[in-house]
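Hi R.,

Here's the chain you asked about this morning:
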Amino acid sequence: MNILSHRHNRRSFLKQSLATGVATSLPSNTAWGETSTIDTQEPHRKIWLRIIERISEPVLTSLGQRQLKARMPIEAKAGESESRRKCTYLEATGRLLSGLAPWLERGPSAGKEGQLRQRYCDLARAGITSGTDPRSPDYMNFGESRQTLVDTAFLALAISRAPTELWQKLDKQTQQNLITALQATRTILPPANNWLLFSAMVEVGLCLMGEQWDVMRVDYAIRQHETWFLGDGTYGDGPHFHWDYYNSFVIHPMLLQVMDTMSERSDAWKSLRPVTLQRAQRYAAIQERMISPEGTFPAIGRSLAYRFGAFHLLADMSLREQLPPDVSPQQVRCALTAVMLKMTSAPGTFDSNGWLTIGFAGHQPGMGETYISTGSCYLCSAAWLPLGLPADHTFWAGKTAPWTAQKLWGGEDMHTDHAVDA
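And the predicted structure, written out as tokens:
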């Protein structure tokens, strides 16, 4: 084969594999149980908006009508439904809003997207009002179980990402109820692992709200994770390494958010901020390389029912415009689009009323640990953070591009990958 033929075949492979990554079906947002096929030429931002509407609509509409507890099913491990009932509604709310927050804060105000954004801002605020009001049928039992610390932290993360829409625009009574809700989780003692960041994130939320916050909870989380750093962008979940996605689900994104808010308040924290970002960039590079040419990724470790929430960090670094030098925004967009389409089109991903089910690729109840329930699955929203970038940003406006695995398996010559030990 001559070199021109080789190059032609390689380009054809890349185009075909890229199309394969996005040519799939997506459940319709007009009827929660139906499906429709998306034109592969459709702009990716429009596809993402369909996905967020498909997933968010049951949760936000129910929240806005104070009907979340009445409508949302509780799927859980056998024997765990009652224990999860105490926390699953807060899980759905905090996790969903943490992924939607940048778009709610900085999305457009005009056109169809602007109309959807405004509606979801209104529903989100109504949900926070209802969920923090002890007299509401949807009150979310802050502090009543250990799990509420986790998802109060995700709610605080959402507020830190959208302080105007999810805090400043709340009425005074709701603001006070929200402060009380965050404070209620201080009675929960976090174990010595990623949970330390949940306690720290709650304090970040209180700080942003102008309330007294506990410097020791923040400092302990930062210092312990510094001792748990293992090299090459990776932290232990506690003193040991785990093959899972918790560096992305929780550790890197929450460390970055804690640093964003708190680093100027301590010279010691400030000195760690550059290296924290450098480590996050390296882990983001690893994440991008884990997405196969077909838009799949390794099913490794626990909490796989969070689906494409596994790419929380890659999405966060895209939003921050801090991707590694060799990773373009548009290739991340294409890779994440392929992953989301593949996972949302898997049969059984949604029940007949549009709620997410437990599973990795479809409905797979065995993929749910004892702490997993319906509300847990909404951490998938973490992949949506780049929607906080304007539509004319390179992430969205840049031409379709193959991601690293597609380039390499397509025969493209590339630089070798190397560890970063900082």
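The beta strands are 25-27, 35-37, 229-231, 234-235.

Let me know if you need anything else.
M.
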